[in-house]
Each structure stands twice: as C-alpha cells, then as structure tokens.
Amino acid sequence: MRCATCGQELEPDSRFCGSCGAHVPEGGAAPAGAGLKDRPAQPPAPPPPGAALRSPWLIVAGVLIGVLLFGAAAAAAVVILRNASAAEQTRSTTTAAPPQVVVEESPSAGPAPAPSREAPGPTAADSWSRQDSWTAETLIQVACPDATNVWAVGYGGTVLATADGGATWDAQDANTSLDLFGVAFSDISSGLAVGEDGTVVATQDGGQTWIKQSSGATQSLYGVALPDSQTGCAVGRGGTILLTGDGGAT
Questions:
Q1: Does residue 139 contact residue 166 with C-beta atoms inside 8 Å?
Q2: 223 in helix, strand or coil?
Q3: Does 78 have pLDDT greater than 70?
Q4: Are 17 and 3 in contact (CB under 8 A)?
Q5: Nearest partner of 232 among 197, 192, 198, judged by Cα
C-alpha cells in the first residue's frame, strides 16, 4: 500500500508515512497510485538566461562565415583562372612561328656589281716618305708657315730648313749650342726658337741669321707661338710664360 498524501510505499502496519509524516488511517493506506492524481503537475524548468538570444546570433554568425568562405573561394578561383590564361597566352606567343618575310626582287634590278680588283689608293700612312736630314741630332719640333718652307730644331742648337718641301735640308747657325725644343714662324721670314735654360733666338730673314735674345728666364722653354712677326708667346718649366710684342726684342 501507499501513502494517500505523497504516494510513498508503506509497510502494512504503518500508522504514519515515513516520507511525509501523514497519518495513515486505520484500514490501511490508499491503494497504490492513490493521491498521485491530486498532486499538481511539476512545471518545466525554464531555459537558462540568454538561451533565447544566443540561438539567432549563432545562426547569423554561421551565415556570415559561410558567405565569407564562399567569397574567398570565388576570389581564389578567379586568380587561378587569370594566371592560367596569362600562362597560356605567353606559351602561345613564344611558340608561335615567326612571320616569314618575302623579299621580292625588282625586275629592273640588274646583277650585283662584281667587286673591284683595282689596287686601293694611297692612304695617309703610305704618303710619308723618308728624307735625308744630314744630321744625327735628335729633332724635337717643326714649323711650317706654308707648304714648301719648313724649319726643324733639336738638340745641340740644331736648326734645319727646307724651301722645297723637304727635298733638300740645309743646316742653319742658331747662334747657340744649347738644346732647342720649340720653333714657330709667322711667315717665311720671321721666326722664333726656344729651348734650354730660357734660350730664345730670333730671325727676320728666314733663318739666314739667328740672333740670341734675353728672355729673362732661367727655366727651359718647350713651346712657342708666333701669330705675326711682332707678337710671340713662349712657355716652359715651372709654369713659365713669356710674351713679346716686338718680335722678341724686349
């Protein structure tokens, strides 16, 4: 038998329910199942806080993640397709046969001329010929006021002159035994020669006579220019520069 109040199983001779303490009337407790109908139904447990709010957000988050993954996959597919297309175009360009160029001969063009068998003309190197200077001294500088008159100077006060373009050379007395390094003529008569230890010699008659001049320099002179019979310039060792406006007289 059971308790009429709580439905607990009771001993046959029990007077109180050991569970709820209800008095068991004489004659026995209520039959099994008695009293259970009078008990109110237990309400269902409420859902945990936030459960109702969590479900929609989870659905939205899942949808967004799916959209993002789909977009990334689509972008990757586009990149792969573009790279494949570019590679195919490159392969087609490199493997394409080059265009053939057809050269049509003009009907009026004649046969190519045969190469000339004539000997080539003289070159600048072939036009030099050795001349006899009649001296063993080293020659340093030359001056050519025209095509036929030439003067050459060198070691030991050497001065050579030609009036026939070098066919014959004549030695001239420079009035010095010092080395001469430079010579200049403004015409076939007026000339200057410079050299060792500031040496300067001048001529007004084409070298028939050379007159020693005082340059005031002790350094050797290596170059001279004479644009006209009166104006001259000489340069030399140690930055030496000499000028004259009267043909070297002063």
A1: no
A2: strand
A3: yes
A4: yes
A5: 192
Rounded to whole angstroms, what are the CA distances from 161 to 59, 120, 168, 189, 233?
A: 117, 34, 8, 12, 22
Structure tokens at 129: 């010929």
User: Rounded to an integer, what distance in angstroms lies between the CA atom of residue 202 and that of residue 242?
Assistant: 14
| Domain regions of the chain by residue span | 1-40, 139-244
DSSP state letters, 60-127: HHHHHHHHHHHHHHHHHHHHHHHHHHHHHHHHHHHHSPPPPPPPPPPTT--PPPPPP-SPPPP-TTTT
Where do we find the tokens 């200049």?
184
Q: Which value, to the nearest 10 degrees, does the dihedral of the CA atoms of residues 127, 133, 139, 140 take?
A: -40
Homologous superfamily assigned to 139-244? TolB, C-terminal domain (2.120.10.30)
Q: Can you tell me the distance from the alpha carbon of 63 to that of 77, in angstroms, rounded to the nearest whole number? A: 21
pTM score over 0.90: no
Beta bridge partners of 89: none
- State the DSSP code for 157: G
pLDDT in tens, 210-221: 999 999 999 999
Rounded to whole angstroms, how far apart are CA atoms 173 and 89? Answer: 88
Residue 66 CB coordination number (10 Å): 10
Q: Letter for the amino acid at 227?
A: P
